[in-house]
Amino acid sequence: MAAGAVVSPGRTVPSGEVWAGAPAKRLRALEPEEAGFLAQAAADYAALAAVHAAENSKSLEEILARPGLAGHVFRPICVAFQLCGSARVAMT
């Protein structure tokens, strides 16, 4: 299924085919190497989603405690608005 394709209600799209358009229409059969690429791309996106979820579950305090962010512009804001404790996040 191509990006932006619109599948009509009740339409069944068989696997192994390339569909595109609005409404979606069959363009051609999927090549074997394309099928392999799509399977790998799906696995890669799933792994990236797991990393994204882990990173987005962190608090601002955890993010600012990372090495290299000691002088980051968000540190004073974090403390000023009591988003993180100044005792826990060193202002270095």
The succession of helices and strands, N to C, reads EEHHH
**What is the number of strand segments?**
2
Query: Major sheet: size, sense and barrel closure?
Result: 2 strands, antiparallel
Strand content: 5-15%
Backbone structural class: mainly alpha
Question: What is the CA-CA span between the terminal residues?
Answer: 51 Å
* Shape field: elongated
If you average the pLDDT, what whole number results?
A: 82
Radius of gyration: 23 Å
Q: Which ranges are low-confidence, i.e. pLDDT below 50, for 5 or more consecutive residues? A: 86-92
Total number of helical segments? 3
Strand order of the largest sheet: 1-2
Indicate the percent of residues in helices: 40-55%
List the defining traits of the structure above.
two-stranded antiparallel sheet; mainly alpha; 3 helices; disordered C terminus; 92 residues; 2 strands
